[in-house]
Amino acid sequence: MDESRRKFLKNAGLFTIVTGAATVGACTKSEKAEQPKALTFFSPLDFAFVEAAISRLIPADELGPGALEADVAVYIDRQLSGAYGGGDRFYRSGPWREGSPQQGYQLRFTPAELFRTALPALHTHFRSQHHGEFSKLSPEKQDEYLKALQKGGIDLGGVPSEIFFARLWSLTVEGFFGDPAYGGNKDMVSWRMIGFPGAYGAYYELVDRHNLALRREPKSLADAHRHGLPMDSGMDPNHAAHAHPASGAKET
Fold it and tell me: What is the DSSP letter of 207?
């Protein structure tokens, strides 16, 4: 197992560009998609950059599919065209001053405005450095450019590159691990990889039962709503391991 991939799975909040095994088993956009995706926010050029970038941030490897295969770019596209992109819950009255790292995001841009501002400037900057498109570069060169954005010091139309990178990384993690109902995590690939059972909300019958084995496929919010299914726990009481005595289940 690639060590950087192991660290990522342990703590997705810490960014590591995963290289090496990332190129093994990764499929191209043309290989994974039979039909063009319907975009709600990105231009085709912007979408090509985002797909290429997220495929380096969370690449496919021996553990399973990566962000590209999980349709994380579709998740980001939908988020930016919706209420989140419009900054519905953002404070927008200023003052707009440079804050400390502890104060978090301080720019006047909504997420949608940030991407609309930064991406054209990014394309221009990238062409001045590489005379082409980001999506056409080798994985190694793509990693180098993403690390440069993360390091900072590049002005993307008034958006510091490190701020843009941090937002892109955050959305990538959300789209990879979030519920497929929001557009990413296609086929619940990340949940299957880490053994997460998905969405269910009732534990009443299990409150006194411990260490029960899980025997079911993960569930999405969309699956339950589509079929009108209750969000049951899916626990199998016949496979209890060291069950709590109060449960009445046999110990194994």
Answer: T
Cα–Cα dist 164/125, whole Å = 14
CA–CA separation, 210 and 111 (whole Å): 42
Q: What is the dihedral of CA 132, 138, 140, 141, to 10 degrees?
A: -10
Query: What is the rounded CA–CA span in Å between residue 147 and residue 142?
Result: 9
Sort 76 into a burial class: Cβ within 10 Å, 0-12 / 13-18 / 19+.
buried
Domain boundaries, given as residue ranges, for the chain: 3-194, 204-247
Query: How confident is the model over 227-249, as a mean pLDDT?
Result: 42
Q: For residue range 22-41, what is the model confidence (pLDDT) as tens digits?
A: 333 334 444 444 456 789 99
Beta carbons of 141 and 130 less than 8 angstroms apart: yes
Per-residue pLDDT reduced to its tens digit, 74-111 = 999 999 999 989 988 887 777 777 777 777 777 889 99
